[in-house]
Every structure is written in C-alpha cells, then in structure tokens.
Write a structure and sequence with these properties.
Length: 275
C-alpha cells in the first residue's frame, strides 16, 4: 500500500513537472502572427535573456520577415513586432545573449537570420538611448560577412560601423577588399576613413570618380560624415567638374555639412547663382 501511494505521488509530481516544463517551453505557441505578445510575457522573456532565446527564435518561423522588413506599417504582423522588440531588448540588456544570437545565425535560414541581425544592429545604433558597444562580438560577426544574402551582410556591417572601434579595422578592411556590392564596400570604407585608415578614404575617392552617377552620389554622401580638410577639398574639387544634377545635389549637401553654409550659399560660391 505504501509503495502504491509513493508511486502515485511520485507519478503526480513527475506529471506536474513535465506539464510545467512543456508549458514553459511553449509559451509563444498559442499566438499567431496577428497577435501581440502580452506585455507581461514580453517583460518576462526579456528579463530571462539568453535562456529565453530558443523559445523566441523558434517562434520567429511564423513570420515572413522579408515582407515584415519591407513593410513600414507592419500591418497584420503584430506578433512580428513583438518578437523584434523582445530580440532587440535582449540584445541591449544581456551581453551573454549577443554572441548566442550571432552564433544562431550560422544554423538558421534567411527568414530567421533577418530579424536576429536586425535586432543586433538596432541595439548598437547611435540613436538608441540604450545603445551598446560590444567589441567582443567582432570576431563572431566575421562569418556573417560571408552570408549569401545582401541584407544580412548589410545589417551585420552596420554593427561593425556603429562600434567605431579600431578592433573592427581588420574585418572592415576585408569587406572593402572582397565585398561585391559597391554600397556595402563604401559603408565599410567610410568606417575605416573615420578611424583614420588611409585605405578607407582612398576607396571612397576611387568611387567618387566612378562612371555610374549613383555610385558617385553614394561616395559623396560617405564623405559628408568625414570631417577632415582632405575630405572637404575632395568634395569641392569633385563639384567643380561634376555634370550629373543628382550627384551635384549630393556634393552640395556634403560640402554644407563641412562648412555650415546653406545649399544656396554653396551653389552661389561655385556656380555664381543659388540654384
């Protein structure tokens, strides 16, 4: 009789434990992409940090993140917005979770990789009041820069550029030398130029002479944020010979960033008229 009671009690305890464990590991399963995660559950997931990641990453699969990323209103994807907020907050608050998030990029598909790297980028962005500058993730990011998807490489590159750290120079240099997408090459070059790496400035200067007006305009925009005498002189020399109106507009705005003039003042100084 005692054995039976002991067995019954033990079985009940075991079932209770398994039931709780199953419920705990499937807290997000009851929601569809049209549902917002309740604030209390979001706070709980965020506070748990790294331990909540398997659950959150598993839930990412129900959202078409390519559509979500391109849809500013994100109408009908409340679950996606909630999951993104959870990921971003975990990346901001838990240093041990950041490397874990990046490592998860190696084994996940594109649809899962996009929100993860987007959240990491947002956590390091200069305009973020809770911005982090986690230099320890630089070596972990290196394989991500070989990703087959341009969007993934671009968002990972954002993190490197936001760090503004000399520790990122080797990887940024590799991007400048090997990246196939020119705008990403220019982003990396700008980050290097800000760190006083000559190769970065030389790369931008090279593309400022490109045959494609779009590339020249992008290069001019990159020089706007590099506040050096050489950068200002390079922009002014380019403006004197540029013929494309869209590139001229970009050069004028870039020079304005250096001199504090208005667009009209820059144009009058170079062309004799304010338009």
């Amino acid at each position: 009789m005692r054995k039976f009671i002991f067995f019954t009690v033990s079985l009940s305890v075991f079932c209770f434990f398994v039931s709780n464990l199953t419920a705990a590991s499937n807290r997000l399963d009851m929601y569809t992409r049209k549902d917002s995660i309740p604030p209390r559950l979001m706070s709980q997931l965020i506070s748990e940090g790294k331990s909540a990641l398997p659950e959150v990453i598993s839930a990412l699969e129900i959202i078409d993140w390519r559509v979500w990323y391109g849809n500013i209103a994100r109408a009908g994807d409340e679950m996606g917005f909630s999951l993104y907020e959870v990921l971003r907050s975990i990346a901001e608050r838990h240093s041990d979770a950041r490397a874990e998030l990046i490592e998860s990029l190696y084994t996940s598909n594109y649809n899962t990789r996009l929100p993860i790297v987007l959240a990491l980028s947002a956590a390091h962005a200069p305009g973020n009041e809770k911005r982090v500058r986690d230099l320890s993730i630089i070596p972990v990011l290196e394989p991500v820069m070989n990703d087959s998807e341009t969007e993934i490489r671009e968002l990972a590159l954002n993190v490197l550029c936001y760090l503004e750290a000399k520790e990122a120079i080797p990887l940024l240099t590799r991007v400048v030398r090997t990246e196939k997408v020119t705008r990403l090459k220019l982003y990396a070059a700008q980050a290097l130029a800000k760190l006083n790496v000559k190769e970065g400035f030389d790369t931008i200067l090279f593309y400022l002479k490109d045959a494609d007006p779009f590339i020249r305009r992008t290069a001019a925009i990159q020089l706007a944020d590099i506040k050096t005498k050489q950068s200002k002189e390079t922009l002014e020399n380019a403006l004197r010979i540029e013929k494309d109106p869209t590139v001229i507009a970009a050069l004028v705005r870039a020079i304005r960033e250096h001199t504090g003039e208005t667009d009209h003042q820059v144009r009058k100084r170079f062309f004799g008229r304010p338009y």
